[in-house]
Amino acid sequence: MKDIRKYHYIYLLLCFGFLFSCKKKVEKEAYDFEQIKAKGELTIITLNSSTSYFIYKEEPMGYDYDLAQDFCDHYGLKLNVKVAESATKLLEMLGKGEGDLVAFAVPIQNELKDSITYAGLGQITHQILVQSANKGDTIIKDVPELLGKEVYVEENTKYHQRLLNLNAELGGGIKIHPVNEDTITSEDLIEMVSLGKIKYTICDEYIAKLNRTYYRNIDISLPVSFDQRASWAVRKDTPLLAKALDEWFAENDNTPVYKSITKKYFELSKLPFEGDYEVPKNLPKGAVSVYDELFRKHAKNTKYEWHFLAAICYHESRFQNNLTSWAGAAGIMGLMPRTAASLGLTSEDRMNPDLSIGAAVELLDRLDKIFRRINDIKEREKFLLAAYNAGNGHINDAQALAEKYGANPYVWEGNVKKYLELKGNPEYYNDPVCKSGYFRAGQTIQYVDAVLNTMERFKRISPQ
Questions:
Q1: What pLDDT shows up at residue 403?
Q2: Which of 84, 103, 272, 123 is nearest to 209 (CA)?
Q3: What is the pLDDT of residue 443?
Q4: Contact 48, 87 (CB under 8 A)
Q5: What is the reported pLDDT for 16?
Q6: Same domain as 37, residue 89
Q7: Residue with the larger pLDDT of the pair 87 and 152
Q8: Same domain assignment for residues 222 and 298
Q9: Which one of 353, 357, 377, 434 has the fewest CB atoms closer than 10 angstroms to its CB?
């Protein structure tokens, strides 16, 4: 019996020795920036949002994404993206090794510094009051002026907590309206301020700045909290990656590329063209544009009326051939670089009206095949227009959501349109049936109606 125990102890010692040697071996096999460069790719973990990462017209975008892409371009790395379901999952996924870098503004907290290293993009932000700034509105310029005002915030968020604290600091008097509807987000509340449905809400400054590019009738000048520092983050065991990120940002935070990325998201207007079509005085009677013959040429032998192509063109460019949108869409048909390339056009070719219209017809044909199960051609046109404006991925997601929740995935009004609107909410864009993530649908929904209305107007002006 003693011999058996003796061998048992020896066996256990050998096992512990083996495990210890494996642990030492694992510790020696560090995975840091040198290994990332050798592998040739960097994986970021981020969130679907209007500031960090989203898909627009089938192209990945976002402030954090674009900066991470520029960092990767500098080192010749391929950028991979993993999307977390929530902010709390970001660091959990990083700790599990599911990515190399959290490309999202993580609040800087002392208790986290033992497990992560803050590196790369650093931000100093604060919460601000978003208020209506239409003609006749009185702009609040000091926090005590909030007394007696009705302020709407998402319930159980940091904005709600800040408003409660602020109310206590002022001795009470702010009329706080916590919104607990699952389908309402902070950005929805900002839109409600713009539409005049509510007067005030609170959000982070960088979110307010981005939304100011969509809504020009809001004021975002009043801070209501102290500054909060935030930064990208890496694991504690990747000090070389942290160093590379810090050095890169120190060298590049004043370059034209960095400035253009910042301007793209926080300064350039995202507003669509406004106003109804008016026939230019220099056009002959019955014409809607100088490109009418090209529209007729490319519509011939297709299922599309030339008025339909002309209406798309009008809402993409107002028939102007020298415009580039904030997202990079260019030419009279508003083609994105990647879309144009997939249709055989160079970036420069997009500025050739003939080539641009021809490529747009090819794109419509491609979308027509995707939505071929919608039998009614007039109904299908709505899907084609929505996909032309937003990319078919988001429309497919909305169809999948509609089907999941018992709506008709082949009907736009009250069905797919409804679920496209809901894709601005985490509960819906994080749903497993969604493949393209976050989307703000307001402009796409307006685009569909606007193009169809303009097409009918063009038919009246030029019946043939």
A1: 98
A2: 123
A3: 93
A4: no
A5: 38
A6: yes
A7: 152
A8: no
A9: 377
Asked if residues 302 and 381 have their Cβ atoms less than 8 Å apart, the reply is: no
Query: In terms of domains, do 452 and 383 share one?
Result: yes
CATH code at position 56: 3.40.190.10
User: Is 273 within a domain?
Assistant: no
Query: Whole-model pTM?
Result: 0.87
Between CA 339 and CA 117 the distance in angstroms is 38
Distance (Å, whole) CA 360 – CA 384: 11
Residues constituting the chain: 464
Range(s) of the domain holding residue 89: 33-118+234-266
Is residue 357 helix, strand or coil?
A: helix
Q: Which two tokens stand for residue 182?
A: 């699952």
Residue pLDDT, tens place only, 350-369? 999 999 999 999 999 999 99
Confidence of residue 26 (pLDDT cuts 50, 70, 90): very low
**100 near 245, Cβ under 8 Å?**
no
- Of 246, 231, 243, 235, nearest to 115 by C-alpha is 235
Q: What count of other Cβ atoms lies within 10 Å of the Cβ of residue 199?
A: 16
Q: Hey, what long-range contacts does 171-179 have (CB within 8 A, 24 or more apart)?
A: 173/147, 173/148, 174/146, 174/147, 174/148, 174/149, 175/148, 175/149, 175/150, 175/151, 176/151, 177/150, 177/151, 177/152, 177/153, 178/153, 178/154, 179/152, 179/153, 179/154, 179/155
Phi, psi of 364, rounded to the nearest 5 degrees: -60, -40
Judged against a pLDDT cut of 80, whether residue 5 lies above it is answered with no
Residue 299 and residue 346 in one domain: yes
* Same domain? 357 vs 454: yes
Taking the C-alpha atoms of residue 195 and residue 28, their distance in angstroms, rounded to an integer, is: 59
> Tokens standing for 102?
């959290």
Radius of gyration of the chain (CA): 27
Tens of pLDDT, residue by residue over 362-409, are 999 999 999 999 999 999 999 999 999 999 999 999 999 999 999 999
Q: Do 64 and 23 lie in a common domain? A: no
Domain count, the chain: 4
Note the pLDDT of residue 57: 92
316 and 426 inside one domain: yes
Q: Dihedral of CA 341/57/311/412: which sign?
A: positive
The long-range contacts involving 188-197, CB below 8 angstroms and separated by at least 24 positions, are: 188/424, 188/425, 189/130, 189/152, 189/153, 189/154, 190/130, 190/215, 190/218, 191/215, 191/442, 192/152, 193/130, 193/131, 193/132, 193/218, 194/132, 194/218, 196/132, 196/134
Check whether residue 212 and residue 150 sit in a common domain.
Answer: yes
Instruction: Report the run of H or E that residue 43 belongs to, with start and end.
Output: strand 41-47
Residues 446 and 272: their CA atoms lie apart, in Å, by 9
